[in-house]
Design goal:
Blueprint (H helix, E strand, L loop, with lengths): L1 H12 L1 H18 L7 H20 L6 E3 L4 E3 L1 H25 L5 H20 L3 H10 L2 H7 L5 H32 L4 H7 L5 H19 L7 H8 L2 H24 L9 H20 L5 H21 L7 H25 L6 H7 L4 H15 L5 H15 L3 H26 L17 H7 L3 H19 L1 H8 L3
Antiparallel strand pairs: 1-2
Helix pairs in contact: 2-3, 2-5, 3-4, 3-5, 4-5, 4-12, 4-15, 4-21, 5-6, 5-7, 5-12, 6-8, 7-8, 8-10, 8-11, 10-12, 11-12, 11-14, 12-14, 12-15, 13-14, 13-19, 14-15, 14-18, 14-19, 15-17, 15-18, 15-21, 16-19, 16-20, 17-19, 17-21, 18-19, 18-21
Length: 487
């Protein structure tokens, strides 16, 4: 009886995840008995489950860390942050995709896959065992392969194939890494690994660490396993691109943070320097690649690569400063909100793919331009936005962790990133001076007229809400920082 009580308490500790699972299963069953023109019911169920999951996670916030199910699932500040951010982001992503998915023959399946991917993302962050980490990697990957090619057009099929092949390749590397660590220590649990890895053979240790970090780096879109990001982002729909480049990244960065803070903390290799180099390369190469982009989706794709660099700054100092955990929480929340808003701007005008086309499409919607400016300047880290607070926290943590050179490089990259965001902002802000409503884009007869007629309502709502909340979080930073920063 006591064992049943213990199992019940452990299951209750996973109530936020169980609510997401209930939403996925319930949505799937409901979709089987719902007419195609009323699939909005499934959307409502999925959104409700995501919001309920986030609400329960907020109510369960606790300063103490617990481990359940043979210490394989960790519930601490990092997991709690990811639970809330991922659940709310998934709800926003469902709303964002509603315009493009409404009436689709497989609308239900899309929403279910999005929730399952969110579950895998949370599992990445909560993993306290290498085997659970591998399972989470698969759950956070396989649904996304289907979502990337959901439109079933040529570009989506190509994007899915590239995504799947690279995911399978990195998955093999990750399995090799896990196998190496098991051979070196005979265990997969993080607490035991933390004890045994410092004495492990260096060759097996190096192979294991690189393989495991490659797996979480792929999910985060970090250099050098980032090549899928621009092709998948540009090949799928804007709503799916927003989901793929935002939600898995949150869990992957948290998983990398936990790896360096727990099992890899005492190893003989200088992993802090390795991750710092990955961060430097990601932010620098992401920015350099974004400079000449005229396709708005590819520009945002390389922007997400550069953002990984800033996120990995705090991973590099995991366990080395008390500022690391709150910095991670703040930046993950700010990034998820702002990135979803930026992609919502693209989804709001689905026919507009280039910077000039977007400016023409938004010509009669000045508030969309204002919200876009807020989101793009937010990604730069301009005050008073949520990402500004997050970057300030991350830079402070990296400085406190003795990575001063990385802070300087990040500051330079932050200034440099302003260039390609302004390449989008400038035409959008001056779109009233662009061609008249009846003038077509070059090579597209009547294109401009068509662009202006197609405006998606749900993405516009997400865009405005993201911009507003980003500013509110920035202005009210003092209030909520007191809740997450120690002391």
């Amino acid at each position: 009886m006591g064992g049943m009580t213990g199992a019940g308490e452990e299951a209750l500790a996973l109530l936020p995840e169980l609510l997401l699972l209930l939403g996925a299963v319930g949505g799937l069953l409901l979709g089987l008995w719902t007419p195609q023109h009323r699939q909005w019911r499934v959307r409502a169920v999925v959104i409700l489950s995501c919001v309920a999951s986030a609400a329960v996670a907020v109510l369960a916030l606790d300063d103490t860390a617990t481990r359940v199910f043979e210490e394989t699932w960790v519930i601490d500040g990092t997991t709690e942050t990811v639970r809330i951010v991922v659940a709310l982001s998934a709800a926003v992503a469902v709303v964002l995709s509603s315009s493009s998915l409404a009436g689709h023959p497989r609308e239900t399946e899309a929403y279910v896959l999005m929730v399952l991917g969110a579950l895998g993302t949370i599992a990445l962050a909560a993993s306290g065992d290498l085997l659970l980490l591998v399972a989470a990697y698969l759950l956070a990957s396989i649904p996304l392969y289907a979502l990337a090619g959901f439109a079933k057009d040529s570009s989506g099929t190509e994007a899915t194939l590239k995504y799947y092949l690279m995911g399978a390749f990195v998955g093999v590397l990750m399995m090799i890494g896990v196998t190496s660590l098991v051979l070196a220590t005979g265990t997969t649990g993080y607490p035991d690994l933390a004890t045994l890895l410092p004495e492990a053979p260096v060759a097996l240790l190096a192979m294991g660490v690189i393989g495991v970090l490659a797996g979480v780096g792929f999910k985060a879109g970090a250099v050098p396993v980032h090549f899928w990001v621009p092709d998948v982002t540009a090949g799928t729909t804007p709503a799916m691109a927003a989901y793929i480049t935002t939600i898995p990244k949150v869990g992957a960065v948290a998983a990398a943070f936990r790896l360096l803070a727990e099992p890899f903390a005492g190893v003989s290799l200088d992993l802090s320097l390795l991750v710092a180099v990955i961060a430097a390369l990601s932010m620098t190469l992401g920015n350099l690649a974004a400079f000449n982009q005229t396709d708005v989706l590819r520009l945002l794709a390389y922007s997400t690569v550069s953002q990984v660099g800033y996120l990995f700054m705090v991973v590099a100092v995991a366990g080395r400063t008390d500022l690391a955990v709150p910095a991670l929480a703040i930046y993950l929340a700010g990034y998820a909100l702002t990135n979803l808003g930026a992609f919502a701007a693209v989804a709001a005008f689905p026919e507009a793919r280039s910077i000039r086309e977007w400016a023409a499409a938004a010509r009669r919607n000045r508030w969309a331009v204002v919200s876009l400016v807020v989101c793009l300047l937010g990604l730069v880290g301009t005050p008073p936005t949520a990402v500004f607070v997050g970057k300030l926290a991350v830079f402070s943590a990296a400085w406190d962790g003795a990575l001063i050179w990385l802070v300087v490089l990040a500051a330079v990259n932050t200034v440099a990133s302003l260039f390609y965001y302004l390449r989008w902002i400038a035409p959008a802000a001056s779109s009233g001076q662009l061609e008249s409503p009846g003038t077509a884009e070059p090579g597209e007869p009547g294109g401009a007229t068509k662009l202006r007629r197609r405006t998606a309502t749900a993405p516009l709502v997400v865009l405005h809400a993201a911009a507003l909340v980003s500013v509110l979080l920035g202005v009210g930073a003092g209030v909520w920082l007191a809740l997450v920063v120690p002391g």
